[in-house]
């Protein structure tokens, strides 16, 4: 039941975000104007931690042996839950902040600052956890392995999108590099002496494509050729391709990987070439906590934000927040900042636009209010934890 006291205190939180609006806008726009790739987000990490340190947060840098990872902590006046706002701040090659991580980072910072400003006696502990290299590097996976998220009661973040959603879910995924080795020769004078690494690549693409009709609807496989040879009159001795492989769960992903890897191995052997397979970190499927998602939705709607229903099919990507969600009750919600899809030049524009900054403000408010709900209502937190434990039993 929402009481007048809760309503009035949530209005105080919203005002606290507005009081910091100029500061968190400046942070978001500065990160947007200076895009940095995964594990190289030195400027962004410094700007974020400086902001938090100035506000009285205790900051530990270089956590999990990652230079650009951090944990910033502020403790309220009494024992209570430890709630983390997750910050991402890496950019995409060529596109810059085409996934809006500048807004993710700044909304988490804004939410944390607002809680501290509004409630010096907040019953709990607030953390901002800086997680580098979401775009392919799996920074959170490394941090999970180092126990960074183990002592949390809840974790949350808000991702910009073209719709506002309470949650969306995410596929398990892995990025794999295939390295093909053949034998160089003159393509016209002595082709019979060559073994084409490029033919091994092309055969592999065709073999993978032939498998698609036998995969379930949740499977996604997408690849690019990153090296296809150096000259058309030279039989390529070395070629390379990168693939992203996704499925609904890590268990299903293992089955898909086995089929894909076998297809590549046999396609390579068919032309006499050899292949090495380099597998990246495995991104877990996302276990969004629906109790927390409902809280976030209610808080967005209390500000007049329209929250759409999660699409029944499609529209799901992957993120290393999934690995966090296997350890602690977690939700990744979404805020509308424009009409373009992520990972496009148009979305890069949106993430630095006025509409993007409005979305940033709304996300920070909803995050802070959701953390407030968890801290002041033990019954809600109990429901969050029970849902999480039940989901682990089902998934195992």
UniProtKB/TrEMBL annotation:
InterPro entries assigned: Amidohydrolase, Bact_exopeptidase_dim_dom, Peptidase_M20, Peptidase_M20/M20A_hydrolases, Peptidase_M20_dimer, Xaa-Arg_dipeptidase
Alphabetic keyword roster: Hydrolase
- Please provide an example of a Pfam family that matches this protein in its UniProt record: M20_dimer
- Any GO CC annotation of this UniProt entry: cytoplasm
Q: Kindly indicate where the leader peptide sits in this chain.
A: none
Q: Which Gene3D superfamilies match?
A: 3.30.70.360, Zn peptidases
Q: Which GO terms describe its molecular function?
A: dipeptidase activity; para-aminobenzoyl-glutamate hydrolase activity
Record GO biological process: folic acid catabolic process
Span of domain Peptidase M20 dimerisation: 177-266
What family classification does the UniProt entry report for this protein? Belongs to the peptidase M20A family.
- What is the name listed in the Swiss-Prot or TrEMBL entry for this protein? Peptidase M20 domain-containing protein 2
